[in-house]
Amino acid sequence: MKKILQILFLLFFTHTIFSQKSSVLEFPSDELGATRLLKIYVPKSYKKDGDRVYPLTIILDSEYLFDVYVSNAKLFADKDKAPEQIIVGISQNQSQPKERNSDCEYDRLTSMPTEKSTAFYKFIRNEVLNYMDSNYRISPFKTIVGNTLTANYINYFLIEEDPAFQAYINLNPSYALDITSMLHNKIPTLEYSTYYYIISGDYNGANKQKTVSNIDNLLTASKNELFNYRYDEYNDATKVSSIGQGIASSLGFVFDQYSAISKEEFKNKVSKLSPPEAIEYLEKKYVEIEYLFGANIKIRERDIYAIEGIIMDQEDGDYLEEFGKMINRLYPESPVGDYYIGWYYETGKDYKKALKYYKNGFTKISSDDPNKEGYYQNVERVLELRKISKEKPKKEEKEEDEEETPEDENNN
Predict the structure, then answer these.
(1) Backbone angles phi, psi at 146, to 5 degrees
(2) pTM: predicted TM-score of the whole model, two decimal places
(3) Residue 315 has what pLDDT?
(4) CATH: 1.25.40.10, 3.30.420.40, 2.40.50.200, 3.40.50.80. Which one for 263-400?
């Protein structure tokens, strides 16, 4: 009977959550033998788009981290720098004093969770994640966030055999002694992309900074290409101000793959690619965006222009046609795809086909567009080139006739 009431209670609150942006859920836990408060933020689009899935973020220390993270997540999503997320904050220190300490404590000899903190681990792993997966449309990409003691705790989800999360945000972590060796053993075995972010600063004290520095040296030297790592040091900040700075920076790092191609991404991953490799990179980027983050967005125009130089400058423009066809699939209303295909045929001196695509692109431009007249110059140029190409054989034939001598005629 107790279990039935618990389920009915959850269903009631689930309905409440769907009807508003965020809500508080009293979650009865068998693992903890107690009820915990969960704060759940659901994006506006969740109810409107019934097929879309969303990345999930779990926030420890939600009493002061939840609102900061949610406000930054909304800003990044509004600016198209990160996908919309479903965010769950787990309250600690609500039902009893020092609950946070017992949730995240570890054995000083082994650096592993104690009996009480193992129960908290199972609560997150077996109950919270399962509940969210069962009741919400969740994508494969999951993030967990912690601060100081809870930042150390989130690493236990990484070192397990099958890590529960793909991104770990460590704000001013108070690492257990053996976490360094645990990470050293785990990172080489990772089989999918994992994001690991740390912030710290001299406000944390010399001993803590030394530990963070040791871990930073280890992670920087990692040879696993699937392990994406970043450390931000805020020596001009305080423990409080660093939280806001760190969360904002972490969102930019963790969701870098979602956002448009940055200068750094272009320099490190795109600039040296061949035209077919650049096109493949772009298409693959957006397939992964949809799979990981549930955002079915077409390739951004600025990303198309990012690889334009590679397509035009390398291999004599042989991939301009393929490039144009890709743009036409994505933006059929735009003249840009037809322009590139027309350019491809123009460089190959197939002026009939070039004219066809330039004209097709021209018809897509509205009459009040200031670029309309400039675009039509492509049509005029090809008409002139086609005229010249037709006249040239006649001119050459005439010149050959003039070069023929009377003696040649007699011989004939």
Answers:
(1) -145, 165
(2) 0.81
(3) 64
(4) 1.25.40.10
